[in-house]
Amino acid sequence: MTEFISAKEPITDIAPILAKKGIRISLEAEELLKKFADEIVLEKLIALNKPFLSKEDIEPFIISNEMKTQIERANDFIPSAKEYEPKIVINHTRDVTGKSRTKGETENFINYFRNRYERLSRFLRKSTSVPTSDLSEVKKHIGEKVRIIVLISDKKETKKGNLLFEVEDMTGTFKVVISSSRDNDKLIKKSKGVLMDDVVAITGKILEPYMIAEDIEWPDMPIVREKKQIDADLAVAYISDIHFGSRYFLEKQLDAFTNWLHCRGESKDLAGKVKYLVIAGDSVDGIGVYPNQEKELVVKDIYKQYELLDDFIQEIPDYIEVIVIPGNHDAVRRGEPQPALGKDLLKSDVLSLGNPTSVSIEGLKHLIYHGTSLDSMIANIPEASYMHPEKVMVEYLKRRHLSPIYGGNPIIPENIDYMVIDDAPDVFHCGHIHRNGYTQYRGTLVINSGTFQDRTDYQIKQGHVPTPGQVPVYEMKYNRLRTLDFSQ
Ligand SMILES: [Fe+2]
Q: Which one of 221, 249, 259, 480 has the largest count of C-beta atoms within 10 Å of its C-beta?
């Protein structure tokens, strides 16, 4: 029978006391005694009359077996994620890394737009009561109602206050009018959200030389989607925009997050489930990203900035799979799609992928994009704002495109448009805005993962309020997203 003595006020200097009695103790025994031995325990140990006491010798005097297991767990918490093998499948066809073929010539631009149009128009071709017509045939339908699938090549307001779109498809061009009449409120609102280079289906009446629009559709995500069952009780943590090298980088907050991943803080069970960490770009602050940026740097050597990223990755528990993509501050080409960071920059053993990229994590399709084009989206979509990046991300999903406005931010015209969203993602992760935001859209979990950079002077001038140190963690099995706050 184990004797159990509760030790409310432990004697911490027990080793010297025992030494005076000619008793030596092992280091492990000393650790345990420091925590739990009181005067009663001490008396019992002396009465044993042994010259050396091991951990096993003293345990029966201090703790019950149940307590022992508890102590072991507290001292050596075993994260559940450690027990699992990672399950990641990279969709290389959706990643430009190693596949850039463009010379930036006219032919590349033509191929780029043709590829964009063909892939997006496929989502708009469906059987409707109104027949779909190519633009070359549209004049045969004067006075009739038709549906056209087009790319918006120009957008302006007429003198009468109507909205005029110039549109094109593979066969020709045409003009579409959205009447400003009072009973047309719904369509006017919708048409204001139509962006340059959007691929849309427009239904309307053909009145040569125009179409009078009645409805506009984007390719959009499917409404009904199969619910995926994830068996492994594992979690993904999403971060972005660490900005190593910047004087605004929040080192203590990032350290707190790393510590948490080691199960050394609150919500230990959740920390132990984290098997994947996704970093969605702008890991470093970079060099020369905008004029006078060097004034905001504490590390002015790009390689040293990436060394800081490597140091951080080294600190992450080794059973966690890390995925890193670049952003507009990273030292790869500025134009999107961006190839992965090479080994010359990021030396750690991580999955270094392009921007954007598509990966399946435990069977859940993840679309990961830094979010550089969020700026041009916010500037051009009424009601879009920096306060709600998640709502702007939904606009990408509707359009099935990650950078609809050509030239809104630098785009490299590859022969394939890597910014098209072919597959409906289960999780869509962006950064760039430095403000956390989450929503659900037609079965896609939308996450903007904020930042580990403090509010900059520029952001103060812009009135932009970032949310640093907030990390969304997604438990896949329970479809539960939680945000952990490391800001304090
Ligand atoms: Fe960014």
A: 249
